Amino acid sequence: MTHRQRLSMIVVMLLAALGLAATGTGAAAAPQTRTVAPPAAAAVPSAPITGTFTDAAGGTGSFAGSFTPTAFAARDGDVVATGTLTGTLTDSTGATVGTVEETVTTPAAVAQATCRILDLTLGPLHLDLLGLVVDLNQVHLVINAVSGAGNLVGNLLCAIAGLLDPFPSADALAALLNLLLALLGRA
Hints:
Residues 1-29 form the signal peptide. The protein is of the alpha+beta class and 187 residues long. The protein folds into 2 domains: 3-111 and 166-186, no CATH class; 114-161, no CATH class. It is 23% helix and 41% strand. The chain is built from 3 helices and 8 strands, in the order αββββββββαα. Strand 2 (60-75) and strand 3 (78-90) form a beta hairpin. The longest helix has 17 residues, at 170-186. The chain is elongated and about 85 Å long.
């Protein structure tokens, strides 16, 4: 695997972990932090974007395209991604209604996470107590908490489990993502 392929895989995994959520295609205000110059578009992996809409006939049309990030920034404590959205709108009859190629800014949200709460391995146990013999084979107990909407206990346990973990600020995370984009542009 080449250096460029490894960096591409890292960015794809980060984008998947962030779970880019497209919330609009309007122009946004300028980012509050400085960003690294955009890399060459061919080196940066894109995320697939799909959706539906109601067409002029009242049927359900579809959108299929991709989002290619060009920069990340921190805005009001959250990370946002700026990039190019390209795709095709198809109506309910299968006819192409139009195409889109537009620069958009969208929040980058963290996807549903699983937190390891406990990973306990007990070795084999042999107990002989006055004629009572207990043999227990190896036991491996794993408890994971799943955070997300409606998962109250999972959200609580993940929050508690991560209290002492250093969590990067939105500015630091945006700077890291921009560094990865710049590396991909030069690779």
